[in-house]
Amino acid sequence: MLTKVMEALRQRRRRGPLLVVLVGLIIAATFLVNLVMLQIAERVSLTIDLTANAAYKVGDETKALLRGLDRDVAIFVLSTPDGFSGSSYLIQAQRILEQYPRASSRVSLSYIDYVFDPSFASRYPNLTLSQGNVLVTSGDRVKQIELADLFNYTYTESGSLTIQSSRAEEALSSAVLYVTSADQVRVAVLTGNGMANMDAFTRLLADNAFEVIPVNLTTDELDSTFDLALLLGPRIDLSDDALRKLDAFLYNEGTYGKTLLYTADVAQESLPNLELFLKEWGIAIGDGVVFETKAERTYQYQPYYPVTEYVDQVYRDRLVDPNAPVLMPLARPVELVFETRGPNQNEILLQYAETAGVRPADATESFTVEQAERWGPMPALVLSSKRIYGTTGVTQARSNLIVSASTAMLDTYSIENTSLSNSRYLLNLLNGLLERSDVIAIQPKSLAGNTLAIRTTQASALGIVLAGVVPLAILAAGLGIWLTRRYQ
After folding, report:
1. Phi/psi class of residue 123: alpha, beta or left (left: φ > 0; alpha: ψ in -120 to 50)?
2. What is the residue-averaged pLDDT of the chain?
3. How far apart are CA 388 and CA 382, in angstroms?
4. For 17-48, b where at least 16 C-beta lie within 10 A, e where not — what string?
């Protein structure tokens, strides 16, 4: 018995060193695996995105943009990594941020503790920085993104503001494009004369690598460095001097190549000087307001919020969803004075349907549709151009005047509504006229459940089916089963 015990002790002593070595190897292997995985995680995402719209991943357009970079891009986040917590949208924005350096060795990402490193602001004396800002830089170019600009917002039924969707990828990719693009498109947002303030639209342009600059028509110069000018719903008539500036801008010393966007507004009074300027281009703005009699051609059953039909197929076919309509609310009637006259050509891009009418400006509250002074189809968005032709008949240069019947088509509820095509159509139109090739289009991403974006007729049909047809079918099925069992 004693011999067996001694033999067991000797075997245990022989196995002891082997166990120590084995445990050491396991620990070393675990350490090496973790080290390798950490190195891989810095370049490749090891998480799986199971959301329906891949909300935590950058899309193919962003990947293509980053693969094609030929300049170094630095992204500075004025926050600690822990600052992106407590909200699913903040976490999503951080995940998107961290994928940019993984997608390109040209991109670097740095978190700056702005509280403990206030000297960072001295690098950018022309910017007003605050906690949470994101700076995208390349060489001397800088694009500042506010933390709030990474999201779209909406109001709840109680009136509180809440995040509707994330636009982090859109904002970041547009900023990268802005700081790396060889040519910058400069946009003059004309001010004075009671111009409408369409922040959602100008922000859309800025987010898509347009350089947006306010220009007062009375005191500032509208020079040839600008490619596009916005004349949005002026309430006060333009002076002869201001109109001469617009003429000189579009003429551009005979080289043309400029674009002016004008929007009419139902709140405008008579503007004889501006109306004469538009008629010289072949466009007349009438009085009154456009309404729609068909519910399926309205937005949320509001007759003065009609959607339009696509006339020109070129820009329609460039849309991701050509079935999504363009909303043109609170619009004035527009009419073509001529289609072609000398170097001028006019074409209708969007129009109101034949079921749309015009309510007179002097109509009373007892107005009925039978009192409409005009019926559709009628223009909603017109492209007027003045062209120079070569000896072969090919257009060598042109300047463009875009006339919209509605200023409200640029408002927040029109531009940021993903079930409408307002933002995408206008960007396609402007990019095409300005001959831009370095453009990127990214849809906002929602972390909530998918919303059912349907038109009014579809909503009515769905309501009838869910509230009437389905309950009756269930009742009939139950009654049939009961009768079958009752008389078997």
Report:
1. alpha
2. 85
3. 20
4. eeeeeeeeeeeeeeeeeeeeeeeeeeeebeee
One-letter amino acid of 453: A
Strands 210-216 and 340-341: unpaired
Question: Per-residue pLDDT tens for 141-150?
Answer: 899 998 888 8
Nearest to 435 by CA among 190, 206, 256: 256
pLDDT of amino acid 448: 62
Q: If we measure between CA atoms, which residue out of 360, 205, 193, 153 comes closest to residue 273?
A: 193
| 170-214 pLDDT per residue, tens | 889 988 988 888 777 899 999 999 999 999 999 889 878 888 999
The answer to whether 265 and 285 have CB atoms below 8 angstroms apart is: no
Tally of CA atoms within 13 A in the half-sphere of 156 that contains its CB: 5
| Closest to 380 measured CA to CA, from 414, 416, 422, 350 | 350
Q: Which CATH architecture has domain 184-433?
A: 3-Layer(aba) Sandwich (3.40)
Q: What is the sign, positive or negative, of the torsion defined by CA atoms of 36, 40, 41, 43?
A: positive
What tokens were used for 483? Answer: 């009768």
3-state secondary structure of 474: helix
pLDDT value at residue 49: 46
Rounded to the nearest 10 degrees, the angle between the axes of helix 199-207 and helix 168-180 is: 60
Query: 50-182 maps to which CATH number?
Result: 3.40.30.10
311 neighbors 348 (Cβ within 8 angstroms): yes
Taking the C-alpha atoms of residue 261 and residue 234, their distance in angstroms, rounded to an integer, is 12
Dihedral through CA 468, CA 470, CA 472, CA 473, nearest 10? 150
- The CA angle 349-433-423, to the nearest 5 degrees, is 60
- Structural contact between residues 118 and 193, judged by C-beta atoms closer than 8 angstroms: no
Per-residue pLDDT tens over the stretch 355-405: 999 999 989 888 999 999 899 899 999 999 998 877 666 777 899 999 999
For the whole model, what pTM was predicted?
Answer: 0.72
Q: Give the 3-state secondary structure of 374-415.
A: CECCEEEEEEEEEEEECCCCCEEEEEEEEEECCCHHHCHHHH
Distance CA 486, CA 488 (A): 6
Q: What are the pLDDT digits (tens) for 9-56?
A: 455 555 556 556 666 677 766 766 666 555 555 555 545 444 545 677
Residue ranges per structural domain of the chain: 15-44, 50-182, 184-433, 454-488
- In single-letter form, the type of residue at position 379 comes to P
How many angstroms separate the CA atoms of 265 and 246, rounded?
20
Tens digit of each residue's pLDDT (9 = 90 or more) over 113-154 = 877 777 888 888 888 888 889 999 999 889 999 888 888 777
